[in-house]
Amino acid sequence: MKSLNEEQSQVVVDFVAWGLDMHAYSKKELVYRTNLVLAQIGAASLEQGLVGNTDTSLSVLADKLIAIQDVSFDMGWQEAINRTQLLNIVTPTPDVLAAEFERLYAVDPEQAVKYYYFISESVENVKVKDIARNIAFTHNSKYGDIEITINLSKPEKTTAEIKAAASAPKSSYPPTALDYTNEGYVGSVTAAPRLTHRFIRDDFSGETWGWHYSPYAYFEEHAIFVNFKRQAMEMGQRTFTRLMQIVTRYPMYMVGSNADLPIVGGSILSQEHYQAGRHEFPMMKAEIKQTIKLPDYEDVTVSVLNWPMTAFKVSAKHAADVVTAGEYLRRAWENYSDESLMINATSAKGERQHTVTPIAQFKDDQYELYLVLRDNGTSDEYPMGIFHPHADVQHIKQENIGLIEVMGLAILPARLLMELQQVEKFLVDRATIEEVAESHREWAQDIKHTRQASPANVTEIVQEEVGKVFVRVLEDAGVYKTDAAGQAGLNRFIDFLTSTK
């Protein structure tokens, strides 16, 4: 074991000072925490009498400590575990974090949330540097500005890591990446290290829920709320009630749930969870197309939005009124069919096909619940889903259209970065069509025939065309199209809503 010089010692002292700044421990634990760091980096001693400061970020200090360690790792996941072992030394324990959060919440909920986000960024539970790699732009459409991102934040695994994961023993612990047993989990070749992972626990509808910030956030303060009960995703009055409870406790955030069916739902249907954050999505800025009145819900306003997917906004002064009106609308949709538009409440096998994607927020002293109609049906022509991105737009987006996309924020795969660069080269005659990915060739040729691209404007043109495709993606996922037949069908459903009880 080595002794540290003054510069290295200062790194250790500054690192431990961060724990004080995050209220992880008191000054009484400084020596104890310092020795934990020394043990982790394989050092015997350090220079005495140094004063710690937090001018340098905790992430940068972790980099320096790993350099002092002078350890090489065959696999990236081993290095990630080593890093979180260091950061865990100065991270508040779950009890300490919860106590400080509740102390601040009693004074000002906004301060409690800011504190928790500060912790999450500091110990890299929010991957700030990785998120910064994402490409983001907006597209002006007839529905308003649509947000587009190409997701480059998640690191790609090497071939060696993929092989190691494939040959690793299967484990059911933690059962999912969302489960509460991830809190403090060391990690492995198949599971990300979560030593610094912390939940804020809440009680909603008599159940224990926990929430944390998403490591690879798609929007501002992107949070995940998880039901510790380990039940499958569901949709109904209990869901709406919990969403209202969350925005009551955290009025600074919107919160929504993926749908509970496979084609129109999210990627983890086995674990009930919601997504929240401090972001006004394009759908929330959409113009109101018409306002309707539901029978027996006089204190509730229901609006139909000008949006590529069929979206209603239910709003009222009291959360309970929004919940009951929202449930009335959901139940009506669950059992409604219009075969002329391939809208069927059940499949040929009698399986439920209708559900909603709900989003809640508290705004201007009103509770709001957005309900987007979803249909899980398939056909011979559309085996991946009648109301799923169709084949001609899947070169841009073929994955399920989940909660975030529904609201107008495209999460596009990393593969597009290189593929779109080749499209740009083709448009300015610096690449042949054969050098463009096959899935994009017809699209690229159409752009070339209709747009005048130059090196100065080609990126802007391609981004605009990507935006147009994503609008089509949303229109494909919409149950009532914006054409005359679709609008007539929507009017029939509205008549059904307003004339039955």
UniProtKB/TrEMBL annotation:
**What Pfam families does the record tag this protein with?**
GalP_UDP_tr_C (PF02744), GalP_UDP_transf (PF01087)
Q: Which reaction does this enzyme catalyse, per its entry?
A: alpha-D-galactose 1-phosphate + UDP-alpha-D-glucose = alpha-D-glucose 1-phosphate + UDP-alpha-D-galactose
Q: Does the keyword Membrane apply?
A: no
The protein's enzyme class: transferase
Taking every annotated instance into account, which residue ranges of this chain make up the domain Galactose-1-phosphate uridyl transferase N-terminal? Answer: 82-225
Specify where it is mainly localized.
cytoplasm
Q: Which GO terms describe its molecular function?
A: nucleotidyltransferase activity
Residues covered by the Galactose-1-phosphate uridyl transferase C-terminal domain: 249-444
Q: In which pathway does it act?
A: Carbohydrate metabolism; galactose metabolism
What EC identifiers does the entry list? Answer: 2.7.7.12
What keywords are assigned to this protein? Carbohydrate metabolism, Cytoplasm, Galactose metabolism, Nucleotidyltransferase, Transferase
Where is this protein found?
Cytoplasm
Family designation: Belongs to the galactose-1-phosphate uridylyltransferase type 2 family.
Q: What is this protein called?
A: Galactose-1-phosphate uridylyltransferase
Q: Which organism is it from?
A: Weissella sagaensis
The gene that this protein is the product of is galT
